[in-house]
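Section handout, structural biology tutorial.
Before the tutorial, make sure you can parse a SMILES string by hand: atoms, branches in parentheses, ring closures as digits. In the record below the ligand is flavin-adenine dinucleotide, and the chain has 391 residues. In the tutorial you will relate the predicted structure tokens back to the input. Do not try to memorize them.
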Amino acid sequence: MAAEVLAEAGCAVTVYDRMPSVGRKLLMAGRGGLNLTHSEPLDRFLPRYGAAAARLGPFIEAFPPQALIAWAEGLGQPTFVGSSGRMFPKALKASPLLRAWLGRLRALGVEVRSRHDWSGWDAEGRLRFQTAQGGVSAQPDAAVLALGGASWPKLGSTGAWAGLLANDGVAVSPLQPANAGFDVAWSDLVRDRFEGQPLKGVALTFGRVRVRGEAMVTHHGLEGGAIYALSAALREAIAKDGAARLWIDLRPDARVEELTAKLAQQPPDQSAANRLRKAVRLTPLETNLLREAHGKDLPADPAALAAAIKGAPLQLVGVRPIDRAISTAGGVAFSAVDEDLMLAARPGVFIAGEMLDWEAPTGGYLLQASFATGAAAARGVLKRLKAGVLN
Ligand SMILES: Cc1cc2nc3c(=O)[nH]c(=O)nc-3n(C[C@H](O)[C@H](O)[C@H](O)COP(=O)(O)OP(=O)(O)OC[C@H]3O[C@@H](n4cnc5c(N)ncnc54)[C@H](O)[C@@H]3O)c2cc1C
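Predicted structure of the complex:
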């Protein structure tokens, strides 16, 4: 996005990427339908960025969801609003968008140099790249670093820049998994029988935050949209206390009294599993989840059983590694960049995208902030060039 804004303003732009081709993580995001952004109003949108909302706000206001959607449509990708307010291209994938975008950039004269691994600055302050043919240097008038986070490193973003920038005196918060799965010490029964099965329409509560959605049982624990929405708070609690207790409400639309009445109608000599299935249609996964949470012998008393369905405590004992997380928390501190996203420690070098220290749940907030900060960094470059400051 930075390249596009700069090239449109008449700059000669070169994009360097360490991979054989660009946009691999965008293509991966496309596997899930490419949730570009969200249709909610900005006063609900911006708080999704938590502590970073104040700094990201101006960038997103300058390049809001409507601008991103207009951009995608301008590249021949009609979009739609999904049932949850999330916005997607109708193609539900990234490849046609990326193809059209690279075509536009080529037409604007942007040059892409792949297999160029940025490795810092040389003694003369030039950008240094490692290539199969050896090291090369470049000295542009300005540079935008948009090297991504550290999740899915095989797609190119390894987070290796964190050490390079920290050595250069740039404040970098530790890179951590965001929108990641969590470990649960499942019994063999749950792991073997239910791995890969979703818990649909549940409500998850951690602390005072309750979210509705879906979670998936994995070999190691749980993942999925509702888990990701709580992942920042869960991650912090696990770092502090070693574990976090998540409460699962398996029937969020039913009051405990309704469930109690339904369960009380079942003959008392039936097994708990049968009562749960017949009275409240609990699936085998849900019944076994109750056993994981409350112990093998579920209460016989209908009111106690109903309460167990409304609040099943599950102990989360770890965060899954960053290499399979959807995104990355931490990164270049906002205190290290000015309001144009330029590094104080390296004038003329701007930072954009997931490299910056923000996180947000899934829902289109990740791409929106990445695009918006890319455009903002480019405007920062233009401002500097117009002022006649060259590196
Ligand atoms: C499975 C998955 C699904 C996702 N789905 C969505 C979604 O639906 N909606 C959403 O909003 N977000 C989604 N995301 C997140 C989104 O893809 C990222 O937030 C976004 O791509 C970040 O953009 P970026 O430009 O900052 O970094 P990236 O897209 O990671 O790009 C960084 C680029 O820098 C290159 N690079 C890194 N280091 C170097 C170096 N030293 N030298 C040269 N090049 C380097 C990399 O090769 C890469 O091409 C998803 C992520 C994953 C993993």
